[in-house]
Amino acid sequence: MRPSLDLIVVGAGIQGAGVAEAAAAAGHSVLVLEQAAAPAAATSSRSSKLIHGGLRYLEHGDFALVRRCLAARRRLLRLAPHRVRLLPFFLPVYDDSPRGPLVLRLGLLLYDVLAMGGAPRHRRLPRAAHAECLPLRQDGLLAVFRYYDAATDDAALTRSVLESAQRLGARALFEARFEGAEWGDAGVKVHWREAGGARRTLDAAALVLATGPWIERSLAGLRPPLAAPPLEYVQGSHIVLCGELGERAYYLQAPDGRGVFVAPWRGRLLVGTTERPYAGDPAAVRPGADEIEELLGVFNHHFPGFYGGRAAGASDVLEAFAGLRVLPAGRGATAARSRRPLLWTDPNPVPRVLAVCGGKLTLYHETAEAALQRLGRALPARPRRADLDRLPLP
Ligand SMILES: Cc1cc2nc3c(=O)[nH]c(=O)nc-3n(C[C@H](O)[C@H](O)[C@H](O)COP(=O)(O)OP(=O)(O)OC[C@H]3O[C@@H](n4cnc5c(N)ncnc54)[C@H](O)[C@@H]3O)c2cc1C
């Protein structure tokens, strides 16, 4: 029996939307199932909202990931200038900062090389220009670097990618919770529940589970089962403060060496992020009071008199939100763990089920292409509908 659809994608976060878009562009019939009422209901609306190479990953030697992310940044600046904009990032170095000016200079030089154009090169501001960065603390300030990276509205970007998929023929169902699937040589029988409680079933040639931090729960519904590699879930929180610093962002060094971004966000300031292990229900992740305090601490250390001489306090926090990173399990600090996307398939010579999670918002298109390539033999050949390297995002 021929399956009625080429591909069912579960999850309308950036990864699910990206796979749906790439598959629809390749000519396939695609159905997206999303449990929430709208796209980007989870991690893909709770990120740091940066389209970036990840300056920090240089420290862990993952030059290839940085280069690929910077290429994705160039692509998105070209295809979605209404969604992705370049911003100057100011990186202050103090006498007590975990990394000194020399190390940062080397990192930024490498970042410029890997970017291969597309943004102005970094520069160290002359000392006389440090005051331009007020209300940044000037006491103990050794150097300020300016480099460029890009920012977005993560939920709007995800909606655009899904809309692009829909324009190319994909269908999306919301309030449709995937419950399980049976898969075999002939295809995949997929079951989901609608908001009203009705159970639906459809056959497809292949299935992609892009359910982010729910990935292990989704896999548990597969027959025969498909195991996940060992994973860890790491909570990252952000706060939104009232006030503005202009059309620029800051990359601050937290005392433990992690980077904390301060970026303009809808006329306010977005400050984040933290890293905390998380083991509960993905739907219940919330910023902890200690995380809010930690972010306020880093902000106040760098902007001690932000509110007319007064430091920021809990009452200045207009909003706080948390998202979950899905990382490969391992030893040591989670900050040093790879941010590469995680993809795996069933072990058959012609895989029909693929799971994708983690990775970067920035890298969604490359991740989607990799997913399709892995499922290529299960998907029937179709005439291509669009070249996504030339198609502007809606
Ligand atoms: C704190 C933080 C900051 C980050 N900052 C950045 C950044 O600045 N730049 C960057 O490039 N990347 C960043 N990332 C990474 C990026 O945000 C994620 O890699 C990306 O959003 C993951 O998308 P996803 O589609 O895999 O997951 P999600 O966005 O979580 O989507 C999964 C979807 O699956 C749905 N779902 C789950 N179970 C079911 C089911 N049974 N049936 C139907 N639907 C289901 C969920 O409702 C959800 O919509 C950050 C991540 C975190 C956590």
How is this structure best described in words?
The protein is an alpha/beta fold and 394 residues long. It has two domains: 5-43 and 155-229 and 339-378, FAD/NAD(P)-binding domain, CATH 3.50.50.60; 88-150 and 231-336, D-Amino Acid Oxidase, subunit A, domain 2 (D-Amino Acid Oxidase, Chain A, domain 2, 2-Layer Sandwich). It contains seven helices and 19 strands. The protein has helices spanning 14-25, 63-79, 101-115, 154-167, 215-219, 289-302, 364-375; strands at residues 5-10, 30-33, 50-51, 84-94, 123-124, 141-152, 171-173, 176-184, 187-194, 199-209, 222-223, 231-241, 249-253, 259-265, 268-272, 276-277, 317-328, 341-345, 353-358. The strands form two sheets. Strands 3, 4, 5, 6, 12, 13, 14, 15, 16 and 17 form a ten-stranded mixed sheet that branches. Strands 1, 2, 7, 8, 9, 10, 11, 18 and 19 form a nine-stranded mixed sheet that branches. α1 runs parallel beside α4 and α1 (14-25) crosses α7 (364-375). The longest helix is centred in the first third of the chain and has 17 residues, at 63-79. The protein is elongated. The relative contact order is 0.20. The mean pLDDT is 94. The structure holds flavin-adenine dinucleotide (FAD). Flavin-adenine dinucleotide (FAD) is lined by residues 10-16, 33-36, 41-44, 47-50, 177-178, 210-214, 218, 236, 273, 323-325, 357-362.
